[in-house]
C-alpha cells in the first residue's frame, strides 16, 4: 500500500485508477518528461487530475459494467426460464424485484409509457449492485489490484461522481426528450415561462426559476447518491485506520447501517427519476 | 474526483443496459407474471364454478333420491296390495275348493248310504223271504211273490 500517513492512505483509497492523455512535455511524478502526447495510466493523483477531461476511470467503468452485466445476465437467465407455473427461487427473487419496481412506477408515474418500468428496474438493480460493492472491506480489492501492479483501485462506481452523473444525465436527456415529445416544444416552453406565476410580466423570472429547477434535477439526483456513498466510503476508510482489534466495533454497525443506506439510495434515485419523468409526461 | 470521459462512458453503458432490459429482460418476466395472474384468476373462477356445480349436483341428487324413495314406496305399497290380494284370492279359492270337496264327499256319502240301504234292503228282503220260507216250510216262488216282495222292500 502506498500509504505512509493516514492522509495518504485516505487519499489513496479515494483515487480512481485513471487511464488518460498526458500532454507533450508533461513532467511525470518520477521526474521523466513525456516526449509526445500519450495515453497512459496515471501514477499519482496529481497526474490523474492533470489529465483533465480526456481520461477514463478504468475501475469505475469496469465495475459498473460488470455489475450491469451481472444484473442483466441474472435477470435474462431468469427471464428465459420464466414460467407461468410455480416459480423457482431465482424467478421468485426477480419477480419480487420487478413487482417492487412496478409498484413504484404505478404509484408515482401517471402516464402511459412502457419504457419507464424497465428503465426504473435497470436503475434500481444496477445502482443497488454498485452500491453493494461498498460492503466489501475497503482494502481487499485495492490490495489485490496492487499485487497486480495497479496503483489505485476504487471499486464502488457510485462513489465516483462520474458514475452517478453518467446515470443522471441519461435520466435528464429522457426528461428533455419526453418533455418535448409530450408537451411539444411550444407547450414545454410555455410551461417553463408561465409557472409558477401565470403572468406575462413574470415570464423572465419564471424562466430562470424553471430552468434552474430543471437543471437541478439531474444534479441533485447524482449528488445525493454520490454524497451518501462517498461519505460512507470515507467513514469505512477512517475505520480501517483504527487498530485491527477495535475495528469491528465500528465496522459492523456501520456496515449493517449501510445495508439500509445502499438499498435506500437506490430506491430514492429510482423513485425520483420516475417522479421527474412523470412530470415530464404531464401535459397541462 | 475528476470529471472526465467516464461520465460519457457511464451514460452509454446506462443506455445500453436500459435498452437490453427493455428488450430482453422485462417482457418475458412480466409476461410470465401476467400469465400466472391469469392462470390464478382462471383457477379461482373455475373453483367458484365447480362449487356452484357441486351445489347443483347435490340438489339434483337429493331430488333424485326423493323421487326414488317415492317410487320405491309406491312399489312397495303396490306389492303389498298385490300380495294381500293374492292371499285373499287363494283364500277364497281354497274355500270354494274345500266346499267343493265337502259337497263331493257328502254326495259320495249319500251315494254310499243309498247303495248300502239298497243292499241292506235286498238283504232284508232275502232274509224275509228266507224267514218266510222257514215259516211256511216251502219255498216261496220269488217270481210269484216278487210284487209283494218288492213292495216290502220298498217299505223298508
List keywords for this structure.
A: 284 residues, mainly alpha, 3-stranded antiparallel beta sheet, 9 helices, 3 strands, 68% helix, 4% strand, B: 156 residues, 2 helices, transport (chain B), membrane (chain B), ATP synthesis (chain B)
- The counted number of beta strands of chain B is 0
How many DSSP E strands of chain A? 3
Major β-sheet annotation of chain B: none
Cα shape of chain A: globular
- Structural class by secondary-structure content of chain B: mainly alpha
Number of helices of chain B: 2
Number of domains of chain A: 1
**Which strand order does the major sheet of chain A show?**
2-1-3
C-alpha end-to-end distance of chain B:
170 Å
Largest interface: A-B, 54 and 34 residues
Strand % of chain A is under 5%
Query: What share of the residues of chain B does DSSP label as strand, in percent?
Result: under 5%
Instruction: Output mean pLDDT of chain A.
Output: 89
**What is the tally of helical segments of chain A?**
9
Instruction: Give the low-pLDDT segments of chain A.
Output: none
Question: What percent of residues of chain A adopt helix (DSSP H or I)?
Answer: 55-70%
Q: Are there runs of chain B of 5+ residues with pLDDT below 50, and where?
A: none
Rg on CA atoms of chain B, Å: 60 Å
Quaternary status of these chains?
Answer: heterodimer
Q: What structural category arises from helix and sheet content of chain A?
A: mainly alpha
